[in-house]
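Please, structure for the following, as tokens.
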Amino acid sequence: MAKKAPRRTAERILEVTLGLFNRFGEPNVSTTLISNELGISPGNLYYHYPAKDELVNALFTRYKADLLELLVSAPEIKHWEDAWFFIHHLMERVWTHRFIYRDLNDLLSRNRRLESEMKDVLQHKDTAFQVMLARLNHAGLINMSEADRQITARHLVLQSTWWLSYAYVRQPRHALEDDNGPAAMVEAAQSMLALCKPYVPGDEKRDLDRLLSCYPVKP
């Protein structure tokens, strides 16, 4: 059986860095720690990424591309199940790169590129959520004016951006550990879809409640 070709060093550096950033927070991870974790020399690390900001930017670029690939699917939403999985998959991407959201204010204060790129991400999220709500409105699942859709989309952006900070404040020692990912995604998706409930007709509200009850949040 032929051996698999070794992964390129640059990609391996990103994978290890992402794990360390997510676990300890980007400000607490040095390039020395990264090179030690990888078992390579600092010079080898610097050859691929001459500064820590370049690691952050490379990881953010990967996150943004993955996110935008999902957001363009918003026009395909036709049912509550579609909306649920859309939001859940969005939050999965946030969770996978949770160091960005864990340390967002600090990162933005130090990284001008990230400052600009994050504004773009927020705008794309806002547009996608407005499309999702318009599709639900067209399907008769909600009865929401355009103005209300704009406001609700903004609240969805806020929740998707700051949910992990909220979870971290509640449980600073455990909230962002790997094992808590599934529960965090379910709770976030439930909370975000609940913003639609005041605009849902009676029969459809029962269907929405039934869907949400299929994914109970563990205490």
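The chain is about 70% helix and 0% strand. Residues 112-138 form the longest helix (27 residues).
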